[in-house]
Write a structure and sequence with these properties.
Strand 10 and strand 11 form a beta hairpin. Strands 2, 4, 5, 6, 9, 12 and 13 form a 7-stranded mixed sheet that branches. A 4-stranded antiparallel sheet has the order 1-3-8-7, with no helix packed on it. Strands 10-11 form a two-stranded antiparallel ribbon. It contains no helices and 13 strands. The radius of gyration is 15 Å and the shape is globular. 0% of the residues lie in helices and 53% in strands. With 129 residues, it is an all-beta fold.
């Protein structure tokens, strides 16, 4: 019964900012999760934008570094993506995703799985010039 619901998308002008939110429910409190934002533009492959791993460390695709910030609230019920200096290249359907972190040997660290199992429905972001 894991549910992810995105919101905050809309149409903005290039150079402006937008904040996306993803309400998360149904996660196992005894497990550690990776969470991420993906986006998919028409005619293009879906790609990961940013993620926050089970330890709280964040990662970004090069094209959004220094412009986007991924974060979680204290209860980890909300995943956010603060987007600044938006360009037309950021126009896409944005999805939040989550999955359980997994152990990786021999370093005994938790890593995100190669594929995320839980997905939201998406929220559209359109950047106009």
């Amino acid at each position: 019964q894991v549910q992810l619901v995105e919101s905050g998308g809309g149409s903005v002008q290039a150079g402006e900012s937008l904040r996306l939110s993803c309400e998360v429910s149904g996660l196992d409190d005894d497990s550690r999760y990776c969470m991420a934002w993906f986006r998919q533009a028409p005619g293009k492959e879906r790609g990961e934008v940013a993620r926050i791993d089970s330890s709280g460390k964040t990662y970004y695709v090069d094209s959004v570094k220094a412009r986007f910030t991924i974060s979680q609230d204290n209860q980890k019920n909300t995943l956010s993506l603060q987007m600044t200096n938006l360009t037309s290249g950021d126009t896409a359907m944005y999805y939040c995703a989550a999955d359980k972190a997994r152990w990786k040997l021999p370093k005994r660290i938790r890593v995100c799985p190669p594929e995320f199992g839980y997905w939201g429905q998406g929220t559209q972001v359109t950047v106009s010039s």
